[in-house]
Amino acid sequence: MPAYKFKVNGKDQAVDVMADTPLLWVLRDTLGLCGTKYGCGVGDCGACTVLVDGEAKRSCQITAEEAAGKQVLTIESLPADGTHALQKAWIEEDVPQCGYCQSGQIMAAYALLKETPSPSDHQIDEAMDRNLCRCGTYQRIKAAVKRAAKSGGVA
Ligand code: FES
Ligand code: FES
């Protein structure tokens, strides 16, 4: 199997996988980064959202070959002690219910605030629109994104 190289959470990684292996499986199965979740597997739910070269992407829809040479950020890139603005806002707004969708939600919010540090309601709606939450935490997610933006964002 060919080796594909990319940087994940700032660390150089080389993985021997088939070219069409989804990045999601590389992250979870090969690298053991299980914070990124498998929801639908067809690009519909956003549970598997990570940043690829700074953009929110569905890792179930990108192959190892396509990710090669790129910078990937997963939920594990945020500090384990929960001190990141997004983590604090998520806790303060008491966002998660079952939690399953939330790493994808946070990474989508991360990409939004990186690009747009003070998003309007409409921009938040647009950016988060395709990240589904079966528990219906949408209003709290929106409040948390606003709170994180107010507290300095993700710069
Ligand atoms: S698991 Fe990738 S979008 Fe649902
Ligand atoms: S918190 Fe349960 S799916 Fe979103």
Please give a handful of descriptors for the protein shown.
about 160 residues; alpha+beta; five-stranded mixed sheet; 6 helices
Summarize the entry for a quick read.
With 155 residues, this protein is of the alpha+beta class. It has helices at 23-30, 64-67, 85-92, 102-115, 121-128, 138-150; strands at residues 3-8, 11-16, 49-52, 55-58, 71-73.
* Low-pLDDT runs: none
| Class derived from helix and strand content | alpha+beta
The biggest beta sheet reads: 5 strands, mixed
Oligomer: single chain
Helical residues, percent: 25-40%
The H-and-E topology, N to C, reads as EEHEEHEHHHH
What's the total count of β strands?
5
Query: Ends: how far apart?
Result: 38 Å
Side by side, the strands of the main sheet go 2-1-5-3-4
The rounded Rg comes to 15 Å
Mean pLDDT, rounded to whole units? 96
* β-sheet strand percentage: 5-15%
Ligands in the structure? Answer: FE2/S2 (inorganic) cluster
So what's the overall shape? globular
Could you describe the 3D structure shown?
There is one protein chain. With 155 residues, the protein is α+β, with helices and mostly antiparallel strands. The chain contains 6 helices and 5 strands. Strands 2-1-5-3-4 form a 5-stranded mixed sheet, with helices on both faces. A hairpin with a 2-residue loop joins strand 3 (49-52) and strand 4 (55-58). Helix 3 (85-92) packs across helix 6 (138-150) and helix 4 (102-115) packs across helix 5 (121-128). The longest helix has 14 residues, at 102-115. The protein is globular, with a radius of gyration of 15 Å. Residues 96-102, 133-135, 137 line the site of one FE2/S2 (inorganic) cluster (FES). The site of one FE2/S2 (inorganic) cluster has 11 residues, from loops.
